[in-house]
Amino acid sequence: MEEVQIYDVAIVGYGPVGAVFANLLAKRGLNVAVIERTAAVYDKPRAIALDHEALRIFQAVGLGDYMDGAIAPHNGTHFLGVDGEIIKIFDPSPPPHPLGWIPNATFVQPDAETALREKLSEYDNADIFLSATGFALAQDQNSVSLSVRRDDGSEFTLRARYLVGCDGANSFVRKQIGAGLEDLAFDEWWVVVDTLTSDPARRPAKAFQYCRPSRPGTFVPGPRRLRRWEIKLLPGEDPEAAGAPDNIIRLLKGFTDTTDLTIWRSAVYRFHALLGQGWRDRRILLMGDAVHQTPPFLGQGLCAGVRDAANLAWKLALVLRGDAGDGLLDSYEIERKPHVRSVVASAKEFGTIIGELDPAAAAVRDARLREDLKSGKAETVRQRFIPDLVSGLIAPDTKLAGKLFVQPRVRGPDGMARRLDDLLKPEFAIVTARPEPMAWLSKTLLADWLRLGSERVVVAASGEPSAGEGILTVVESENLFGDWMRQNAVAAVIVRPDRYVYGAAGNAAQLNMLIGHLLQNLRAGRQAFQAAALSVPPDLTTPRESNEQ
Question: Is the pTM of this model over 0.90?
Fold first, then answer.
């Protein structure tokens, strides 16, 4: 068996999550190996929805301009009851869009995967092994060894300082480390049918959930000509027989006129709700479907995996370059697992609403949901079901901690207008609306901050952009950031590389204490991250309600 170089990170699986992760690591200068059992991108759509956080992560990869032209707005969802009338509504959150992207969008997965692979091919520090399957794993104190078999039967051993399994629901990596899956009690068979229409204007540009006991189903309009239906199988129906071409047409005709449709793909899926019991075994970690699976009723399956990639990439980079202790990697599961659990719970709830098969129970459901909608009790904005971070590497109980940092459109030193993240490094940043708070940091902490590669950024409401004296000054066009800072009564915000807020300060003492606390926790050993939340000096805490936006 031939010996291959030692990589910083080996990634098993080159689907969209693995491809996003590989790009984020390669962009940070890490040496990456990707192992994928297939030879090419699967040429049919699977995931169809992305939210504004996932789009922001595609932007971080360097595909912002591509995604601008590849997505279509998800214009909301109407849930229709037994009588075909509205019982529940999901609307996209209105502008201004806080993350710089429309809140929900549809896309064509094979096109996006191809763009991700083309982007990764630009890096000399990423090696891709296609038509290659891992078959054995071993790890010691310093590295992981992966035995790989090519389709031609040849074998090689690949070594890396860390290995991440992005290899899907039947993950080889998860099985190798013996990580169990917690069953979150959702298990249903559905048929997914992707079609291409010759008449794109024939149907509304809005999604529908058909909450009818006779045959629950979903309609999602995708970009350009793509239209999707998801159709629930009833008790006693054979999943294998349901996938036959003549049965697919029969099921589809129960929801729409098919004369303008060409079937692109159909598949029978068993929708699960599962959550990995352990996301890390020393130098081996899991992400995406390998460690969580959700029903599709909130459009968060791929989004969750993309969030995993963004959360872990910067932490691995800091550890591998010696700017953080290995214990930082424990915060990955601490942060992501409760987030995923919450999202899955919401998706399950909506799946239960949609999939009710008892006519009497459905009638009671319809009356209750209509009353909730009429009274204003029902939450109608989809993104409000996506939680903040509640623990991990944040300063708990301080303002804005765990929330996503806003992304205004700004004018940079070159005079061009763009989204803020495009002007920032993938590092920590102190961001203010005025230059004065930048002088609050002590000389010692400032030196440590700059040594970490972190930034200082002023997002001003007016004036001229500049990049002098180690401070980037940009000018925003809509006052999104300035209003956000005023509403939360803070003067400086500490932003993580994944654009979550570590914490915010209102004065010099708070800023210095927060920065000192952050640097201390980056240096901390494993024990610091075993608890669900990290400690913060008592005089920095504020009541939890002050953290609401």
Answer: yes
